[in-house]
Design brief:
This protein is of the alpha+beta class. The protein has two helices and eight strands, in the order αββββββαββ. The strands form two sheets. The chain has a six-stranded antiparallel sheet with strand order 1-2-3-4-8-7, covered by helices on one side. A two-stranded antiparallel sheet has the order 5-6. A hairpin with a 4-residue loop joins strand 3 and strand 4. The chain is globular.
Amino acid sequence: MTFITTREQRRQLARENMKQPAVLCEVPRHEWPTANAKQLRVLRSRDFLVQEFHEPAPALVRLSVCKTTVQGQRWQDGITWDDLQRLKRECGYGDADAIEIFPADADMVNVANMRHLWVMSSPVPFAWRNMNND
């Protein structure tokens, strides 16, 4: 998503981010900017915003993740695999498999620097497993 921000708005956002905890905390529903029937939770830390949405089986939920900082006219890019794994755990899904989808070109939608994880209701059969956990 592209948007216009002033230098003062970016500074204010940085000040607000520093007031947030280092780990995700649930945002009360009355503070959500918009209502969506599928939206279950909003969680925020100083670095990330995670929105949780209901999804049909075999998924449990979708976690939509973006950074809380602006770079130019977009949300800052650069969400790492380690970030996503940690955020999935902080949302309470550390024991579940999650899938990130790279769609066919015809289905691609890229309107923001945002990542989406579909948390699955059961282990996916094609995932690598740590055999040292026996």
